[in-house]
Structure formats: structure tokens, C-alpha cells
Amino acid sequence: MNLKTVLILLGLALATIFALVCVLLTRERSPRTCQHLPPEQEDMEDDQSLVFADLTPEEMSQVVRYLQGHLGVPLVDASRAKPSDNCIASVDLQVPAKAEVLRFLDGAGARPPREALAVLYFGNQPEPNITEYVVGPLPAPAYHRDVTVQKYGGKVPYHRRPTLAVEYKQIGGFLKSQVFPSAPAFMQQVMEYDGANLAVVTAAPRGFQSGDRVTWFVLFQNVSGFFVHPVGLEVLVDHSSLDISQWAVSRVFYNGQYYRDMAQLESAYVQGRISVEKVRKAPWDGDFSSMKPRAPRAALFPVQFEPQGPRYSVRNNQVLFQAWSFAFGMSVSTGLRLFDIRHKGERVAYEISVQEALSVYGSNCPGGMSTRYMDRSFGLGRYTSPLVPGVDCPYLATYVDTHSLSDSLRPKKRKASLCIFEHNLGSPLRRHYSNLQSLYYGGLVNSALVIRSIATVGNYDYVWDFIFYQNGAIEAKVQATGYPSSSFLHGDGLRYGNRLWDHTLGTIHTHFVNYKVDLDVGGVKNSLVAHDMAFEMTRAPWSPEQQIERPRLTKKVLDTEDQAAFRLQSKMPRYIYFAANSKNKWGHQRGYRIQITSFAGDHIPEASSMERAISWARYQLAVTRRKEEEPTSTSIYNQNDPWTPTVTFADFINNETITNEDLVAWITAGFLHIPHSEDIPNTVTVGNSVGFLLRPYNYYDLDPSIYSHDGVFFTSKQDFTACEINPLACLPKTASCLPNFPPFTYDGFRNM
Q: Is 176 exposed, middle or buried (CB count within 10 Å of its CB: 0-12, 13-18, 19+)?
């Protein structure tokens, strides 16, 4: 082997060694894939939470088949039923009585039978009515019982039924085939109507007295974001008859003027006796109402991930997170609800649920001025939206499918319509930097668990959150977004809102949300206690000639329901809490405090003929004895007959004693919305959020978050760059990993 060959081989060997070193160094610098660790929390009984679980699609179908075979009357699919037919409007879980559930959860009681609540419309009867049946036991139904009289004191009149999707479709067909053709010149020349370019929005309630089913329908250009494209035409349809052929137009409104019907409007138009406001035809994307971004893409927004995997677990309908556990469900009418909420293994609340979302509108157009939407009637659960990962919830949240049966004989699946995630709020839950005496830092990141659903009811999107904090606090919050509702701008319209576009009046309206909060603090029996502050004048003991105004604690036990009903504008004690029959280490009654965030004004004058239907909105807080016969503050039937409400919350408050009883807090939060130019194209959530907090008040002997694994503490004398001293120093190692982002999917446009 000559020297040249040796040098060549030596060069190849050095090159190989250099390449291997580069590969090894590159591997060392490359982030590894994040390794998931199992969540650290106490195991609960695997299947106990199923007592609150939503019906499965199979159970819903079993209920439908049972009712079809055992009622002895024909049942038409609600998706194609006429008002004169019998149909199943909805099937939902019948939540068992609380006493039965607690015996099962806490004692040796049997599991309550699993049952469904079915709402049926009987239009094909000598006396048409709405009937509610409890059907069970599931999954193999063998009985049904009519609970309508038991719940409501009598049969529910048929005119109170919530409007099915098919009825709106039938009204649309009526307008298209019979109403619009009676004004051909006006519809063609002014509306440029081609049979598909107009969208219709319903007002509600439907009339002025019990028995009415007469609805204003407001017309818009049928483009993206049509809610802000009014064309000035509104039609009042009397659809009270069960015979669709008997439906009729009662009034027509156009650009500030009322007409007997479309024929009279046509005659006035042809004779040149009306003031025409021609609306510029909008492109299909809505132009100004389009939500398509107006800016090109730039750097990606921050994305949150869990370097060691989720620290919570979801099993069936139960969530476990650190010291928290709870069961969740989705009611077809009221949406997201929670049960059996426990902290450190002890129940603090039996139920937290949404009851109603109310909006009261003002306008100088008939549809707007007569609108008082009670969204429970439309279905906050029914209209729960599929969620978009990365916007509606963090991309790596846990997504849960939900199912419902309404307006059909078949269950409907809503893919990824509920999300659960841990959220780092980017701020400390608590902290202190000591620069006096000793030098140290102590703090805890505010990382909380969120369970969320979003309901899109017409123009509005409601983001419903329940948030669980490490200090034992629970927050319920709703954020409103979506499109503002609008009227056609004419005359004195600016008395009722702001101009948003050429012919668009953003109409003033209120939002009121009502919650049911069944707290069980240290047991089922609680009392309601109010603490506040008052100033007292006293002489300084060390200088008697001087006076001091000092705050002192005031205490009062609220003994009766009347004392515990706080009107919206009344002064409420700043600390009001459910008190247990036990004390903490320091001798104080253990409690959970209710703290409301709300900007609500008057809901509606109490002299109004429909006020009793929404009388829950009189109160920012009302605490009553818990009763099985008072499960909800309102009813799905109140929307279409608010003049004779099926459920009147004001009747719950009858001065009963509430000391050492099982109590329920009914909480109302709300705000005023005056749409403004920044609501175009869409209302933002910022500033449009209300809700309440449930906070431990002497419930523990000290803040339970001190036991969190996330705590940070170091002194000036410690090496706070060392991982074993300061967990934040571990981040370069523990958080330098690549999360697994699954491919983006969305099922919101399937099976519409």
C-alpha cells in the first residue's frame, strides 16, 4: 500500500468521523417528541357518573320505537309533520330525583332507573295538546307515564308548543307560493326577488295574548351574514290554524308604512304612493358582512401545548383534574350542565346549569320592537355548534361528541361539540416578591380547567364556560359573539340603535342569562349568610380627643326566601355565601361565596303582560328551598305563550324558611348591547362577558392551592437556576419537545 492510498483512506476515515459527529450533535439539538405522563388524581368510581350521562343514540332510538308501538296513535316524523299531526318533538335524559341519586352516590342505595323524558305534540287529537312522558327503564323501555299534569298543573295547550324546524319551512313555502306572488311588480322591481335571494328571520313571541300564533317575519338579503342586510320588508303571518291552507297574512310593513296585505302594498307601489328605498344588491359573500380576513397571513399566533400530556382525564361523562371531579351533560333545551362537583373528594355542588338566555329588542320596525327571544325554547343544546380546534378551543383540547334527538325520529350527532382543556391564563393565581427582611419569591401559575360549549342560536353565538381553579373556586361565564340583529333604517330609527351601514340599524337589546346553582356545602343542609362592611366612629384609645372611622364586619343570616331575593337594582351584600353546619379550624362556618359579574339593567317593566314569564330576570340572586317540583326557573313553553306562563319563577319565592335547608341559588347576569360600527362584520367577545364565581369562604383552613404541584418558591440564598430548587429552571429540559398536532378536521358542515 503506497503513501497515496494511505492518505486517501485516512481522509475518508476523517470525513466519516466528522459526518457522524455532525449527526450526533444535530440529534442532540433536535427537540424530542413530548412524552405524556399519566395524570395524578384520585380514582373515582368508574361508572357512578353515568347516572347523569346523556342518552346514547341507541337509547334515544329505543325510546322512539317504544312510543311508536305503545301510544296507540300514529306518530309522524317531526321533520315532515304538519301542525295537525302527532309527533315526537324531543327526547332527553330524565334526571333522577336528587334524593335517589345521593343514596346511590353516597350510601348503599340502588342505582336509580335510567329514564328518558319525551315531549310529544298531539295535533291529531280532539283537543290538541303537548304531553310529556317519562319512559323507562333504559335501555329496554317497558313503561311510560304522563307527567304533564304533575309538572305543570294541567295539560299544556297546543299553541304553546315551540316551533319546529318544519313549521318554519312550511311558513317559508307559504310566503314563496302565496304571499310574494300577490305583489309581482314590487317583488321583482324593488326586491329583485328570484325565489332564493331573500332570507327570513322570525320574531317572538307570536302575538299579544294567549292563543295567538301570529309572527312577524323580517326579510333580509340571502347572503353571508344576512342578519345585517335588511331590505325593509316584514310580513305578519297568522299560522295559528292547524290547517296550513288557512294561514294568512295579517299585516305587511315596508319602509316605515303598514299595509293590510301584499296586494295593498302592490297597489300602492304600482300607483307610486310608496317611498321606495332600493337596497344595493350585495354579493354572495355579503361584502361588509363577510368574515373573510381582510389581511394576509403573517406570523402564527401563540399556541398552547402540554409538554408532558394532559393533566386531566375524561372517562365517559366524568372529568378528573387535580383535586376536582365532576360529571357533565348536554340538555337539548338548556345546553351544558354539570353535576356532582367535588373538590378534594367532597361535594360542593350537586348541579350547575344554564336555565335561560333572554334578549329584549327595541326598534321602530315591528319585528324588532316585538322581539323577546327566550332561547331555551329554540334549544341551547340543540344548536350547540361543532368546535373549530385552534379558535373555539385550544388545538390540543379534548373534544367530545354529543347527541340529541329533536325535530326528527333519528338522533343527531354533533362531532366535537364540547371541549375540555387546561388553560394557562398567563398570570399568577397568587404571588409575592419579598424585598424586605428576608428575600424570596413565591408564586403559583394560574392554570385552570375549562369545559366549554358554544351554542349558535340564529344570529348569536354563546360561548358557555365552566372554569375550575386550583384554589377551589368555580367560575361560570358566558361570552356573546356572532352577528348583531338589525332592522331597516328609516324615520326615527336612531332612537333605537346606531347606523351600521347604508340601510342597517343595529338594534338596541339586552342579554340576560339565568343559572341554577344547587350548592351542597359540607352537606345538603345549608343556610344563607351575608357579610358586608360598615363604618363606625370611635375614639382613638391612645388619643381620646381624636376620632377614627374604622370599617367593621356586619353579619346577617337571611332566614327566608323573601330576604334572599335581591332585585336587579337593589343593593346586595358584597359577601353572600352558603354556610355549612360545620366549622373550619378557626371556628368559622365553612362556606362557598357567590360573586356575580353582571351589568344588567331592567329586564322589562313588571306591568308588562308577559313579564311573569321571565320573572326570574327580576333578581340578580334569589335563593329558594330546593324542590323536585321546581326543577327549572322557566319553561320551553313560555316563549310562545308568555301571557299565561307554564312556569312562573316569581311563584317560587313565598317566604319559606331557608335556614338549614337544601337550597338553590338562581343567578341572573346580563348586559346591554347597543350595536355600533365595530360590530361589523361581527360582535366580539371582549367586554361582552358575564357570569359568576363560587369561591371558598372559610371552607378550608388555608388556601388549598398551597398543595399544588405547580408552586414556585426560592430565596436569595438558593441556587434558583437549579432544577431541584425551582421547577421553572427545568423548562428547557421538560418543555423542549415537539407536541403532536393531529391533522385539522372539522365536521360542522356535514349532515346539516
A: middle
Q: Which residue has the cell 481522509?
A: 11
Q: Which of 373, 399, 460, 515 is an active site residue?
A: 460
Q: Which amino acid, 146?
A: D
Q: Which of 505, 513, 217 is nearest to 336 (CA)?
A: 513
Among candidates 637, 616, 648, which has minimal Cα distance to 517?
616
Question: CATH topology of 48-157 equal to that of 165-289?
Answer: yes
The x, y and z cell numbers of residue 328, run together, are: 357533565
Mean pLDDT over the full length of the chain: 94
Cross-strand bridge partners of residue 93: 116
Q: Is 460 tagged catalytic?
A: yes
CATH class, range 314-484+503-535+543-707 = mainly beta
- Among this protein's residues, is 532 annotated catalytic? no
Over residues 414-429, the mean pLDDT reads 96
Q: Which uninterrupted H or E stretch holds 87?
A: strand 86-94
Residues 6 or more apart in contact with residue 101 via CB below 8 angstroms: 51, 52, 112
Cα–Cα distance for residue pair 645/425, rounded to 1 Å: 43
Domain 165-289 has CATH 3.10.450.40: yes
- pLDDT-derived band at 38 (thresholds 50, 70, 90) equals confident
**DSSP H stretches of helix in 487-620:** none
Interacting residues of 633 by C-beta distance below 8 A, sequence separation 6+: 355, 356, 514, 516, 616, 647, 649, 652, 666
Note the pLDDT of residue 39: 78
Percent of the chain's residues with pLDDT above 70: 95
Contacts of 359 (CB under 8 A, 6+ apart): 371, 372, 373, 375, 460, 509, 510, 511, 512
Q: Does pLDDT of 1 surpass 80?
A: no
Collect all residues with Cβ–Cβ distance below 8 Å to 702 and sequence separation of at least 6.
Answer: none
From 54, 92, 375, 461, active-site residue: 375
Classify domain 48-157 at the CATH topology level. Nuclear Transport Factor 2; Chain: A, (3.10.450)
644's grid cell: 299565561
Task: Parse the chain into domains and list their residue ranges.
Answer: 48-157, 165-289, 314-484+503-535+543-707
| pLDDT value for 340 | 98
The predicted structure's pLDDT at residue 108: 84
Asked if residues 665 and 517 have their Cβ atoms less than 8 Å apart, the reply is yes
Confidence class for position 569, pLDDT limits 50, 70, 90: confident
Alpha carbons 503 and 88: distance in angstroms, whole number: 42
CB contact at 8 A, 296 and 23: no
Per-residue pLDDT tens for 463-498? 999 999 999 999 999 999 999 999 999 999 999 999
Does position 180 have pLDDT exceeding 50, yes or no?
yes
What's the rounded Cα separation, in Å, for the pair 683 and 482?
5
3-state secondary structure of 161: coil
